[in-house]
Amino acid sequence: MRGTEWTTDGLLAFVDKMAKYHDAGKLPFALHLPGGNEEQLIDIFANINEGDYVLSTHRNWYHALLHGLPPEEVEQKILDARSMFMFDRERNFYTSAIIGGPVAIAVGIAWALKRKGSDQKVWCFLGDGTEDTGHFAEAVRYVNGFDLPCTFVIEDDSMAVDASKESRWGTDKDCCWPDCVVRYHYTKSWPHIRTGNFADLKVMKSTMKTDEEYFPLLPKRKYLGSASINYAPLGMKFKEAVTQGMTELGDEGAIFIGYSIIPGDAMGTLKDVPDDQKIETPVAENLMVGLAIGMSFEGFKPVVYFERHDFMLVAADAIGNHVDKIERISHGEFKCPVVFKTVVDDGGLFYSGPTHSQNFTNVFKELVDFPVLYPETPEEALEMYRYAKDSDGPVMIVESKKFH
Ligand SMILES: Cc1ncc(C[n+]2csc(CCOP(=O)(O)OP(=O)(O)O)c2C)c(N)n1
Q1: pLDDT tens-digit profile of 128-180?
Q2: Are residues 253 and 367 in the same domain?
Q3: What is the three-class DSSP state of 360?
């Protein structure tokens, strides 16, 4: 059942059933009930086709139902602590509990669909609290500028948790966005979180499971190369080996994303990659990673280039909360084989100071579960980029300028 096949009463009855589960203590975790926007959403989903992508939020149940996820599946996922983690790879349904996360991912999917000449579109739903974020402004500007097939729908109840728009911004006037953004106003019929009623704590305690029971850990991808390979000398310098790694990735169709990659060729290392596989982005690090994530959902192999490691901190949300967690929180439905290439400016001529010299390899090793690699020889550099090329998961490779 999709879109207009749903009625307001049908949607309300679904939520009412979940609210009763909550009050009976059967949902011992965070959940956000939708309500008050049934008619608006039924109208909007009349324009959303099967096969289109729908990206949603912590408050995603209506979007899931209207996009055709069977109610019994949505119900089961809610009972399994996946209220904020509702995914369906087959129906192109994606959510995030981190506000501002999905907007950049939506852009990447839309870029991929346009590149493929697809008729599919992307619909990204967000609240006015998410509209507050810089991530949203970057995403809208990119979709508008490149005319990507993506519509952002602001579900504006004028509140972020319990804070009004006026208290957050000094005015309750709507912000002005281009045509790829539509907005509807509504009044939420439930509190921000849960139902507002006391739940039965005894039942809650007996139902409660652990993090790993709700979201089993996936086998860790490990790079074993350095320990297991006796490298034959390549007879090339470090930078030549990196360049060779880029060329091999390019030969397999990888898309290179970042700034200083068309003018500059990522310090010359992309000189043998065709320009139409390079996207010179705005200086918007979170958007760069979102672009990569979204493209990877459509089968592209993205390589995101950060010309200094310290710039990557600006994209910590996209890397730590999304790239690293997508597979686990979606129970393996969505994979994200993104390659990160970055440089630590820690040596040689043109010293650029303490910030750009920082090497965050160990910080990222703590932050993420995927391999974070630091090649020290030309042989290692090429082998690591070959590993990244063939991996079906994310990999980060940190190049020190002192080896270049
Ligand atoms: C990056 C980030 N900051 C803070 C939060 C905590 N948080 C969860 S929902 C929310 C407000 C969201 O408001 P809005 O986007 O308007 O959605 P609504 O809940 O009104 O549907 C906040 C601040 C979060 N999930 N992610």
Answers
A1: 999 999 999 999 999 999 999 999 999 999 999 999 999 999 999 999 999 99
A2: yes
A3: coil
Q: Taking CB atoms and a 6 Å cutoff, what residues make up the pocket around ligand 1?
A: 58-59, 97-100, 126-130, 157, 159-161, 192
Using the mean position of ligand 1's atoms as its centre, give its distance from the Cα of residue 359 in Å: 32
CATH of the domain at 184: 3.40.50.970
For the four alpha carbons of 330, 331, 334 and 340, in that order, the dihedral sign comes to positive
Share of the chain above pLDDT 90, in %: 93
Of 192, 213, 234, which residue constitutes the final position of a domain?
213
Written as six digits, the tokens of 7 are 């009625």
CA torsion through residues 163, 168, 170, 174, sign? negative
Q: Which of 84, 153, 161, 186 to mutate to test the pocket of ligand 1 (most atoms within 8 A of CB)?
A: 161
176: domain range? 3-213
Question: From the DSSP assignment, how many helices (H) and strands (E) are in the chain?
Answer: 17, 13
CA of 126 from ligand 1 middle (Å) equals 9
Structural domains counted in the chain? 2
194 CA to centre of ligand 1 in angstroms: 14
Ligand 1 atom at minimal distance to the Cα of residue 99: 26
* For the CA of 160, the nearest atom of ligand 1: 13
Q: Are 230 and 270 in contact (CB under 8 A)?
A: no
Instruction: State the Cα angle at 138 between 280 and 185, rounded to 5°.
Output: 150
Name the 3-class secondary structure at 28: coil
Contacts of residue 191, defined as CB under 8 A and 6 or more positions apart, other chains included, come to: none
365 belongs to a structural domain: yes
200 plus 287 within the same structural domain: no
One-letter amino acid for residue 68 of the chain: G
Which residue CA neighbors atom 25 of ligand 1 most closely? Answer: 98
Distance 130 CA to ligand 1 centre (A): 6
Say if residues 311 and 359 touch (Cβ distance below 8 Å). Answer: no
Nearest C-alpha neighbor of 103 from the set 49, 154, 41: 154
Rg (CA), the chain: 23
Write out pLDDT tens, residues 175-227.
999 999 999 999 999 999 999 999 888 999 999 999 999 999 999 999 988 65
